[in-house]
Amino acid sequence: MTQPWVAPVSATPVRATVSIPGSKSITNRALILAVLADGPSSIRTPLRSRDTNLMAAALRTLGAQITDEGEDWLVTPAALRGPADVDCGLAGTVMRFLPPAAAIGQGEIRFDGDEQARDRPMGTILDALRGLGADITGDRLPFTLHGKGSLPGGEVTIDASASSQFVSGLLLSGPRYDKGLTVQHDGKPVPSMPHIEMTVQMLRAAGVDVNDSETNTWHVQPGSIRGREWVVEPDLSNATPFLAAAAVTGGRVTITGWPSQTTQPGDDIRGILEQMGCDVELDANGLTVTGPDRLSGVDADLHEVGELTPTIAALAALADGKSVLRGIAHLRGHETDRLAALAEDLNGLGGDVEETEDGLVIRPRALHGGGWKAFADHRMATAGAILGLVVTGVEVDDIATTNKTIPDFPGLWAQMLGGGQ
């Protein structure tokens, strides 16, 4: 057992400039596209974290060449083949993006991951692949894919209301299927649609013909994927705890390299922080957030940006008015049941949090120190760090889980509290 991490308190408003590592979402999509491409690719300033290292290691295991060139990765595609064992860890992008690519490989490929990963929904993607011609044993981790060297492809109807990753995972490999791919969603609205838009834009950037003009339907024409240079943006969702530090302490934090245009859902934090009373400015220096004297509560539909929920819930617990966070029932199927986890942790610190069918109601209440469970969830861990800035004695039981997407989060947090760059 690791020792709990006592979240540092900031006695003064946080003032810092922070550089955030690259986007996990872009890095792992770029890796899949590069390995399936018709020639070499380079991935500039990729994120190197547990999730992306797991993806790179899995692709190497299946035959691809991914080599270091300074801070970058050079990727030489190869025909994927087993026998091989793939460790998905707790990475949704690995367990849902890699099987559709491995389905055009040859041989037996076994997938498994962390104990918590075995509870994550997988039936949608595995049943879809079976419908497209794949031979798979098992309905969740662990499962085995019996590769035949190609996949017929064609049309498939799925219910992607639990995760946008089901759609993205299929689309990324669709061009390499014999008949291409048509994915139709039939169910409640798909969460985190910006992530699917990111996938579509990256496919088009690699020369793939994608038609998404019809609601809840995506057509990918068969053909090659062009090798190219991918430049990875900073991970905007991972930047939100640092912006929250300015919000809860009345400080001022600048995130360098914030793009003026992006498909990353994390960009929506700008409007939410403004609603809560922060001053938000985007210019050539990056995104700067200045916190107010007191935060206001917020009523927010987070269906498209569910990954921001732990950060926003931490802010809401420190705000003056009631907050209602809606549209996030799908978070019950993430690394943990994030709604139940947030309610348990915040109430454990003296908060007043009520779970609803699709979200949380958070009412202001004085908080006290105590244990904060990460539940093996990186975003739960960073939410505890935010609260610890102004609540003495918050102890996060597993801060190391942040390595999933943020290398050395404690070090970066301490650097911010020391003034940043």
UniProtKB/TrEMBL annotation:
The keyword Flavoprotein does not apply. Keywords: Amino-acid biosynthesis, Aromatic amino acid biosynthesis, Cytoplasm, Transferase. The active site is at residue 307. PROSITE patterns: EPSP_SYNTHASE_1 (PS00104), EPSP_SYNTHASE_2 (PS00885). Its EC number is 2.5.1.19. The lineage of its organism: Bacteria, Bacillati, Actinomycetota, Actinomycetes, Pseudonocardiales. GO terms for biological process: amino acid biosynthetic process; aromatic amino acid family biosynthetic process; chorismate biosynthetic process. It comes from Kibdelosporangium aridum. This is 3-phosphoshikimate 1-carboxyvinyltransferase.
